[in-house]
Every structure is written in C-alpha cells, then in structure tokens.
User: What shape does this take?
Amino acid sequence: MLRIGLSGGIGAGKSTVSGTFSEFGGIVVDGDVIAREVVEPGTEGLGKLVEAFGAEILSADGTLNRPALAAIAFSDDDKRATLNGIVHPLVGKRREELIAAAAPDAVIIEDIPLLVESQMAPMFPLVIIVHADEDLRVKRLIEHRGFSEDDARARIRAQASEEQRRAVADVWLDNSGSADELVAQARELWHQRILPFAHNVQNRQPAPGPTNVVPYDPVWPDQARRAVARLTTTCGHRARRVDHVGPTAVAGLDAKDVLDIQVTVESLDVADELAEALLAAGYPRVDDVTADTSLTDDAAKWQKRFHASADPGRPTNVHLRVDGWPNQQFALMLTAWLAADADARTEYTSDLHDAYPRACRWAEESGWRP
Assistant: This one.
C-alpha cells in the first residue's frame, strides 16, 4: 500500500487532481467529505460544535449552517483552534477506518486540506501540493462557491502560507492555468512517479539510482529536510538521531543526485525491527548490503542495515548504523570535515580508505564532536 498526502489551499484545485487519480484507480480519502460526514445531524461532532459555538450555527432543519459556523470560528485564532480540536480527531478516526478497508496493494490518496497546519506531512511517503495564487483562488471561490471576497480572503489567510506549503511539498502542481492543464500534470505524475513508486513498494525493491556525478543542486538541503522529517516520524523513539550525511549534505560539492540519510539506532536488532515501518514509508530494505567497506581492524563495527527509496523521483539511501560505532561516527565526521575544509572538498574522491584517516586527523586537530 502506498499512502500519498494531497493538499493545497482552499480554491487551489485539489479536487481536480484527486478526481484524476481516482479515474486511474487511486482510492481517494477526501478530508472535506469526511469532515461533512462527522458533523451530520445526530453525530457526536455536531453536538460538540453546538456546545462550543451555540445553536445559532444550526439551520432550521437541524443541519449545520456552515457559513454561520465559519463566521464565528474564523473570527479569531482561539475559536478556530476550538473548531479544529473538535473536528480533526473525528476526521482522523474515520480516515483510518477507510484506509484499513483498502486492499494491500492500493494507492491511497489522502486529500487533507489542513495537512500542513496539522503537521501531518512527514507521515506520508509522498506529499503533493496543488497551488494557485490568492487572487485567482478568490475569483474561483466567488464564482463557483458563492463566497464574498472578504470571506474568501479570510479563509485563505487563515490557512498555511505558500512558503509553509513549499517546505513540505515533494511535488508542486501549479494550477494557474486551465483545468485541462492541471489534469495533464496529474496524469503524468500518476504514470511517471506514483505507479512506479507503488509497484516498487509492493515488490519491496528500490527505484534505480543515478550513476553520474552532477553539479551541486541547491534543492538538496530542502529535499533532505523532508526526508529527515519523514524518517524521524517513521522511526520515532527508536532513532537516536537522523542526519543528512554524505556528499549531497555539503554545500557546493558535486555529487551523485542521491540523498544519504543516516538513522542512528541503539543496535542492529533495533534496525531490523524498523524494516516494515521503513517499507511503509517508502524505503525497502536492500538485503545484500549489510556492511560498509572495512576501514579498521574491527570490521564487525562497520556493519549496518541499508534501505533505499522506492520513489523514482527522489533517490535516497538510508543507512541505519549503531550509535558510537566507527561507521556512524565517520558518516558525521566526513560531512563536517568536507563542509569545513575547502581543500578537502577539492581533493575529495569516493576512496573511503583515503578519506577515513584524513577525516580522523581533522576531527582530532579541530576538536570536532558529533
């Protein structure tokens, strides 16, 4: 099963994207639909809303009067937090029920309007954001959903900013054009990235990685931050730390376009316990890679567990190493050494047998500590 987080501001066009994915067989779990379900007449949700905001949020027939609720709940941050505190847990519970009923090989598209605000992005192997500029979204909300301009802008500005959404987006879909153009983007994404990703997860295999060295890419740090957040969430307390290491972690250094992320664990047994959780996060284990090249006499302490991303759109290597072992220390030290020493960056090669003693000398002389 591959779970994908889909989000974007109100009026951005998420429904067009989710509808396209649904046509291709994706199972759409729509947060807006669920949010309406959990506040229907007779539900626990509606009762709690009336208790919090008063009977004036009800229509004459006992259903929720959404404009009336919005006028109250979006008037200040505390009231909006109260609304979210009531609705979000109920939506989350219903979402999990729907996902549990899906087939093991399903692609689940979770359409979550407040994915960024609720800090849920690291829970998903892939996050897709649909975006359009504010003025265009206001125009759409007025024309198609009957909003006033003031209400539309208030709703937009109560949500996450463009900067906040960009920070979590693995895929950014621009919906400033026509609906057909957005559908074309979604269709290409489905066939070129989502389906191969799902196939790789189902078959427990990584996506092929690049072999050529390329110039430093300034997007690598942002991509790595998302990977670190995803792996930190996946591993939870069993990870002592999660770090972006290796050549792509050094600003200005040419490298293969593969992120290296190190997960520090207490033992290799803990690393083995994380295998299924990492698979669900999009990182299947590569069984024939269990140790680094031996650079010291104590080869046993250069063992690790190795996973690699199933996502063809973002090659990533995940190294699970034991806290304090020389390979775990070296990964951190090498990155710090290259970042601090311009001559080292100039001379750096993939020959670890040469790099290891040089990095150790640098660490001793500089007083570096992980």
User: Anything to note?
Assistant: The chain has two domains: 2-202, 213-366. Residues 252 and 362 are 20 Å apart (CA to CA). DSSP finds 15 helices and eleven strands in the chain.
